[in-house]
Amino acid sequence: MRGWLKHALVVLVPIVAFVTVSIVTPWADALPYGILLVGLLVAFFLGEASANRMLALFGVLIIALLATGMMTTGETAKWAVLGVGLFCSVMWSNIFSLAIEGLGPMKSQASSLLVMAILGGAILPPLQGAMADQFGIQNSFIVPMIAFAYIVFYGLWGYRAGRDMTKVATK
Description:
Helices cover 75% and strands 0% of the residues. It is an all-alpha fold. The protein has two domains: 1-48; 51-167, Growth Hormone, Chain: A. 12% of the residues are buried.
């Protein structure tokens, strides 16, 4: 199938299905599915972007959501913080693929070291908890903001460091 036809069908088929459903369903019931449809279409086109750009973009969006959660209250803050999870969904796979890219015969060793080096989930929650106890829950979100700022850096520039590992002698 040609590329343009695939893209056209990916866009048109869900839209036709949504319009068909919305004809026989009250608009208030169909609207959440329309929002989901838009999100899925955006995700489809973002999925064709490079891993590092998507990592950086999602990191920036997470930082914006955390800042929104810190500066607002009520429903807005709740949905902003919950929205972080949506953008975290692709983080690990992109970080992992960028980290082991170009390692040649050392890829399996690097993969195991990368998995063993996961510390964020063990260190950051207690640190954020201590910050929350000292400065309040909303202010404690500065901890994940700093972590996601590093992820943005990694997505834009950091993943390139030490790229040419294929020349390293192996046993």
